[in-house]
Each structure stands twice: as C-alpha cells, then as structure tokens.
C-alpha cells in the first residue's frame, strides 16, 4: 500500500532536549545523497498531529524542541498531540565539525500509542509495511542566528504536506507500544556562519485502525449454558476514549459455540470451543473483537424427548444440546426413567452412569454396536451398566474408572476407584490400568 493512504497515521514529535560535549576530532563526509520518489499528488486523508519546532545551538550542540509558536504550520484538521504523548523522539551523540560543516545526532523513535506503528494488518502475524516508520521535516532547517543555507542529508524525499519533503526512514518491522527503534544518524550540512537553526518534524507510519477502534472488556471464558456480560468502548486512532456514549452492534462468528445479544453484548455459552465476538460501533466503521472460550459442561440426561436417541438435544439439560467431545455426560435415575441408546460413534469428556436409588429404575447406556470414546473418568455405580457390543475406549490421563462395562480398551492411564465387571475382554493397549484393592472380573453376556 502507498504511505498515507487509508491505514496511515501522522504523529507530531520532536527531538528531546539534550546537551552533550562534542568531540573535535571527527571528519565526517557530507552524508548520503537525497534519493527517493517525489509524489505528484498529496496522500488521501491523512491523520495529522501538531507540528513541533526544534531549535539547535550549533556550537554548544544544545537541542531544544517545543510546539510551533502561534500554531504556525499546524494543519487545519485533527490537531491532537505533541512529543512524549503519542511518540517520543530522543537524540544522542550530537556532534559538529566546523571544517566540514557537518552536524550529526543519533535519533530513536518510541511508540506510545496502543496501536502498532508500521503495519496496516489487523490480524496477527502483523506484516510490516515497506515504508516503515518515517520522520519527515514539516519545516526545513532554517538559520535563526547567523547566516547560511542548511540542508538535510536525508534518506529520501516524498509528498507529505507538500512535494519534496525530506525524511528519515526507520525499518524496525512492527513497532509495538513502548518499543523503540534502533538509532539512526541524522546529518545536517550547516555552514560555520550559522549559530542556531530550527526545524519541525512529523512521524508518519501505517496503523491497523486509522479510524480508531473498539476495545471489548469482560470475562472471555464462559461455560456452556452460562452467560457473560461484555462491554465496549470506542477509541480514536491514538487510543483516546470517546467522551460520549456509543451504541454497538454485537456478533458471534460461530453462534453454535456461543451466541451474543446483538444490542446488549451478553454472551450465552453453548458448545465447548471458541468463537470470535465482534463489537461494531453503530453507524460507524470502528470495531473490536475478542476470542470467547466456551468451557466444557456436565450435561444431564432427562429423556424429555420421549425417545432414547443419545444425539437428540431435547433429552439433555441444561440447554437441549447433546454432550460435546469435552463435556461430561451424566445419566442417573434421579432425572430420568428412560435411558440413552447410541445411534453412531460418540466422544465425551467423561461419563457418569449413576444408580442413585438402588432397587428402582436401573440407569444404563446402550452403546449398541457403536464405539464410545471417553477422554475422562468413567464412573458406573451400583446396578447401573454400560451395555452393547461396541467398544468403550478409555483415553484420558490420570483418570478413574469403575462399574459394569462393555468391551473396554484402555489407551490412557486409569486408576480403579471401585470394582470392575467387564462383559467382554478388557484390553490395555499402550495405556495403564492401576488397581490396588479392587476386583476386576469378566462376565459373559
């Protein structure tokens, strides 16, 4: 992209005031020749910040900077800043060689705004723009005491506020908030007849959100069937919050994982996983987004659908969604009188089949001929049982198992917390089944 088109930011800054003693044995060359293209037309709608004048005392090498007197040179639109508020330019090692007329100083740029400088990308990894971060001279160096023409041995020239403005280019990649560039040597050709001179500078760089952005706050972890309230605040391009209230439109990019109220920002978790939640300023272009993580949940079988189909969400509490691969499924006689049958292979985060009131209805899970994979504990109590001709795969780490089970294959690491009755051969393949005081027996169907 071209510098200063959509996605660009201009930040006013100045070289920090600094006094150092010069070395007298330097013999520098005049510096690099001015190179680089000169644009034929101004950039499209840049964001401008207040210009800064820098005053240089050549003999003492004192650099002093401050706002432009009387607003001279300040742009007519968006004027919002100054040195040490959005960026900081810091100078070091000033030196002047009267014999060659070369004045040099090393300058670094520090980013103080929340947005990164030098990139227009909004999604990591952030790619650096070829133009990097540029510091250009809004006011060329002019002698204020003494006489003589002063020139800048810059990296190039381009159209910023006008054609042919000198600039120094920093290529730090992406300059995040509070990061500092490597120093760059600025070179001025200053006749010995000049005692002091001044100049004005801007910092120019691409930013991801040239119109500003929206910051979303809240807890970004919600359990399935639970809710979280999110809030949003709009900020301008340099990270200043809008003073007035702003309405937002909310959206979940995967509403099967979590839904969000379009006008309220209230997130309802549904299935374990993650989704992007986006808040867009009503009637505007600013937006923000966060990753909402939906945690696993314990889902309880009720048989409310009147059928035994495991996959039928109406049969499950709390939100009519069948257990997801990281959820724990609970089947108990305390909540149902009919019990699930698998119609396909299933995966759960854990499984509890609980005979809470022995002597009454006996809870079961009928796997039929399908396989059931569990990444967590499998606890079957009292007369409850898991039946069928399919296989139960125990794939968790440091989990527990007990009860009446179908054909079992252990590939994880499990510890018995009660007796096991297996209706077929129990196999341990690459896993471990630890038993210290309980009984394991095989029972034919």
Query: Mean of residue pLDDT?
Result: 83
Number of helices: 0
Q: How much strand? A: 35-45%
Structural class call reads mainly beta
Overall geometry: elongated
Largest sheet: 9 strands, mixed
Work out the oligomeric state of the chains in this entry: single chain
How helical, in percent, are the residues? under 10%
Number of strands: 37
What does this structure look like?
By secondary structure, this protein is mainly beta. It is built from no helices and 37 strands. Strands 22, 23, 24, 26, 29, 32, 34, 36 and 37 form a nine-stranded mixed beta sheet that branches. Strands 1, 2, 3, 4, 7, 9, 10 and 12 form an eight-stranded antiparallel beta sheet that branches. Strand 20 (273-281) and strand 21 (287-295) form a beta hairpin. The protein is elongated, with a radius of gyration of 35 Å. The protein starts with 7 loop residues before the first strand and ends with a strand. The model is unreliable at 1-7, 12-50 and 69-82 (pLDDT under 50).
Structural features:
445 residues, mainly beta, 44% strand, elongated, disordered N terminus
In short:
The chain has strands at 8-12, 18-19, 52-57, 62-67, 87-97, 102-111, 133-146, 151-152, 156-158, 165-170, 184-189, 194-206, 213-217, 221-223, 227-229, 231-235, 248-252, 258-260, 266-269, 273-281, 287-295, 298-301, 316-317, 328-332, 346-348, 350-354, 364-366, 372-374, 378-380, 385-387, 391-394, 399-405, 407-410, 413-422, 426-428, 432-434, 440-442.
List the helices and strands and how they pair.
Blueprint: E1 8-12, E2 18-19, E3 52-57, E4 62-67, E5 87-97, E6 102-111, E7 133-146, E8 151-152, E9 156-158, E10 165-170, E11 184-189, E12 194-206, E13 213-217, E14 221-223, E15 227-229, E16 231-235, E17 248-252, E18 258-260, E19 266-269, E20 273-281, E21 287-295, E22 298-301, E23 316-317, E24 328-332, E25 346-348, E26 350-354, E27 364-366, E28 372-374, E29 378-380, E30 385-387, E31 391-394, E32 399-405, E33 407-410, E34 413-422, E35 426-428, E36 432-434, E37 440-442
Parallel strand pairs: 14-21, 22-24, 24-26, 25-28, 26-29, 27-30, 28-31, 29-32, 31-33, 32-34, 33-35, 34-36, 34-37
Antiparallel strand pairs: 1-12, 2-4, 3-4, 3-12, 5-6, 6-11, 7-10, 7-12, 8-11, 9-10, 13-16, 15-19, 17-20, 18-19, 20-21, 22-23
């Amino acid at each position: 992209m071209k510098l200063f088109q959509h996605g660009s930011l201009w930040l006013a800054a100045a070289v920090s005031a600094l006094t150092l003693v010069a070395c007298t044995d330097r013999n520098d060359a005049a510096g690099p020749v001015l190179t680089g293209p000169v644009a034929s037309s101004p950039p499209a709608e840049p964001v401008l910040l207040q210009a800064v004048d820098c005053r240089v005392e050549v003999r003492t090498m004192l650099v002093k900077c401050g706002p432009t007197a009387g607003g001279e040179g300040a742009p007519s639109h968006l004027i919002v800043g100054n040195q040490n508020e959005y960026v900081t330019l810091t100078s070091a090692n000033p030196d002047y060689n009267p014999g060659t007329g070369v004045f040099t100083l090393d300058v670094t740029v520090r980013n103080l705004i929340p947005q990164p400088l030098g990139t227009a990308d909004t999604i990591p990894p952030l790619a650096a723009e070829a133009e990097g971060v540029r510091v250009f001279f809004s006011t060329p160096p002019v002698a204020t005491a003494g006489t003589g023409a002063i020139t800048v041995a810059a990296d190039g020239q381009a159209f910023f506020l006008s054609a042919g403005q000198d600039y120094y280019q920093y290529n730090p990649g992406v300059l995040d908030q509070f990061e500092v560039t490597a120093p760059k040597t600025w070179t001025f050709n200053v006749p010995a007849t000049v005692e002091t001179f001044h100049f004005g500078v801007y910092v120019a760089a691409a930013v991801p959100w040239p119109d500003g952005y929206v910051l979303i706050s809240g807890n970004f972890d919600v359990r399935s069937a639970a809710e979280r309230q999110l809030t949003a605040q709009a900020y301008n391009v340099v990270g200043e919050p809008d003073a007035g209230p702003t309405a937002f439109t909310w959206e979940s990019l995967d509403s099967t994982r979590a839904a969000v109220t379009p006008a309220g920002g209230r997130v309802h978790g549904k299935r374990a996983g993650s989704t992007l939640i986006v808040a867009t300023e009503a009637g505007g272009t600013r937006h923000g987004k966060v990753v909402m993580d939906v945690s696993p949940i314990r889902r309880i079988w009720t048989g409310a659908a009147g059928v035994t189909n495991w996959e039928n969400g109406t049969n499950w509490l709390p939100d009519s969604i069948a257990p997801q691969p990281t959820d724990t499924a609970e089947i108990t006689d305390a909540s149902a009188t009919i019990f699930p049958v698998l119609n396909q292979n299933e995966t759960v985060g854990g499984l509890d089949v609980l005979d809470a009131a022995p002597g009454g209805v006996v809870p079961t899970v009928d796997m039929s001929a399908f396989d059931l994979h569990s990444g967590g504990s499998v606890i079957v109590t009292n007369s409850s049982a898991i039946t069928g001709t399919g296989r139960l795969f125990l794939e968790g780490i440091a989990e527990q198992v007990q009860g009446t089970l179908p054909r079992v294959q252990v590939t994880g690491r499990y510890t018995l917390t009660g007796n096991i009755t297996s209706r077929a051969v129990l196999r341990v393949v690459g896993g471990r089944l630890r038993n210290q005081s309980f009984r394991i027996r095989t029972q034919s169907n």
